[in-house]
Amino acid sequence: MVGKHSRHVLLALALVALTPLFASGNPVIGMDLLPTLSYSAQEDSWTDQVVANLTLTLSSKNEGNVRGEVVLKGNNLSVPTSFDDVVHKAYFKARFPSFRLTAGKTRLSWGEGMLFNAGDVLYGDNSASVSLTQAELRSTTSWLASVNYPLGYFSFAEAVVMPSETQTPTDLFLAARYYTTVKGLKMEAGYATRKPLGEARVHKPYLSLQGNVGFDWYLSSSLAIPEEGAFLEESKESWLVSGGIFYLQRLPHERSLTLRLEALTRPFGDWKTHSVKDADAALLFYPELSLAYSPALSFSLRSIISPLDLSARATFSTIWNVFEAFNLVGSISCDAGNAGDLFPWNSTGSSLSVTVGSSWVF
Amino acid sequence: MYRKLPAMVLMTLLLFAIPSALFALSSDEIIEKMDNMATFDTTFSTGSIQTTDRFGTKTSLFKSWSQGKVDSLIEFTSTAERGQKILRTAGSLYLFYPDAEQLIRMQGSALRQSMLGSDISYEDMTEEKNTLDSYTAKLEQEEPFNQRSCYVLTLTAKTRSVAYPIQKIWVDKESFLVWKAEYSTQQGRLLKTMEVLQTFETDTRVLPKQSRIEDKMKKDSSTLMTIDSFEANPKLDKSIFTLENLTW
Fold this sequence. Notes:
CATH architecture of chain B: Clam
Oligomer: heterodimer
Shape of chain A: globular
Helix content of chain B: 10-25%
């Protein structure tokens, strides 16, 4: 039954895809072929598989006051069961004399941070369960309508509405932010309110700052205040603070070394030094070291460290841009921790994986 | 008669020397003229960046708008980086990645990153045309380059915030076009060279149509920057150099 349903979804998507394909005239296809060898410490066995990711992007021409884009994504490991599984983006933007309207399925980036971003009140995704081999660590999209209202050259206000999870008009997801730059300091302040299914409505104010003091720094903070219940206690527990620094050091022979260090903390979380869970980890670090050996060849070491249970996930990867838009990629990932830790070596999934593959955009 | 000879020689030398000294340009005046010749009220251009190494050539296409000495906007139009934009305004540089709908503000060291794998950094691409704000200039000599009479100047950085501590440039005595540049470290180690291969004329000014940038630290690598179309002083909407337009 699932197979039949999937075929219907794929057929519908193919029809959706073909229409703009002819109109657009500029489809862009992204293809990743990633053969992977994985070791499971729990089962003491090796497995191999080929991960094939396919992305089809259809964009309108970059002209006029209305623009749009459809991005379809899929891979060979997951069977799509709904329209949303394949439609990564499908939106239009319309430019009115004094404001801009965006509607459809897309992503809005609020706050600052590559992995940890307390200011991301729209998606609220600060999970540590993420593959560090991806270029884009957070890429969630959602159905929304937003209005962007410029307030000067480098300031704007933005309001967003998303469908409710309960399909009740009074339970809509609403959010707004103000973005400005003052003397070298970027400031962003906003608020979101959502009604999770079966729970009380939650109000999320946030503040995000970014500046430079010899190195780039950024800091974000947010709260989730429930409308009902022990709101003071729950607000305290929900307080999130994330921050990071970024620095690029030029090396001899025109090479460069970049360092990014991010941290996420829940100040009123559980600070005891024992096994922690992803959703309430009181402190997490994300260090990233990248060496651009040449403009075409780079190496990077990324890790998520949970200092309270002394576990970590680390990924070493390399990208070689051999030809135009064609890359050879390789990575080694592993988890290091005890059973019950955030990143246990003996997990049900892969403890160690080695990937060598390629990616091409055409 | 012979007693008067030294005086006559001196007089003759003075007669030739005084006018040339009066009309000779100082190093700062040459740099100002050079900057002014490269600066328009507004411009719109399209072009390409071709990076060649031993595996072949990679091409990125772009559109570019500029206003005065500081404001510039670059939009990439080639397949792999379509829609990526760079906005440079006084003191700030912003990047927009359409895939992630992400607006990134770059400051400090981040500006030194290579742009799209070329031998050009974000800093190079959007450099402000106020050379004397960042460098002190010294006129070294005059010599021909590409059969053109040129001033040869050495620029020494005033601050550490610039991409290259030392620049040696060959400036056309007539058009004030920079025909050649050598970019070096403080210790004098040559990092990059730039050479203009073709020029075009617009609004009575001579501008580079094609330039080759070579990274001296890498073998068999060069970047060719070509201007395919250029419009001087077009009427540009003020909103072009804003965040609203960057994210559009």
